[in-house]
Design brief:
Helix content: 55-70%
Number of helices: 6
Distance between the termini: 98 Å
Length: 145
Amino acid sequence: MASYLLGGPRLGFEDHRQGVIDAVVSAERSRDLDELYPDRRLWAWAHMLGFRGHFSAKSRRYSTTLGTLRQARADYRAAQEHAALGLDDVEPDTVLVLADWQYAGHGHTPGESALAATIARDLQLNRETAREALRDQLALEGAAA
């Protein structure tokens, strides 16, 4: 019954692979694997047992590439957007500019300027404090010697 559910002979599986698939499906149906793998639904993936490649790899029967599929999907979505926005037909090589750039200025905003000045003052104060501490430490070491 399991090979019929998965279409074993119809899909042309070799005997060993079909046996493994049948074992997984029958064990899953009899709940032998439920205790070990309760959420795995192994029977749903049993047809992939013994497959030694990537699911999207090319085969003799299926020879499209993922790039072709991506391009077809992108073209379809572009056509949908084109229709939704009501754009005129244009040449495929034409670039549509849907926004424009404007000069917003340069430099800091007043708040950023105040923050930068505060940080600069704090750094300068830290440097001066470190220099004084070093001078005091050297003076103490010189007096001790």
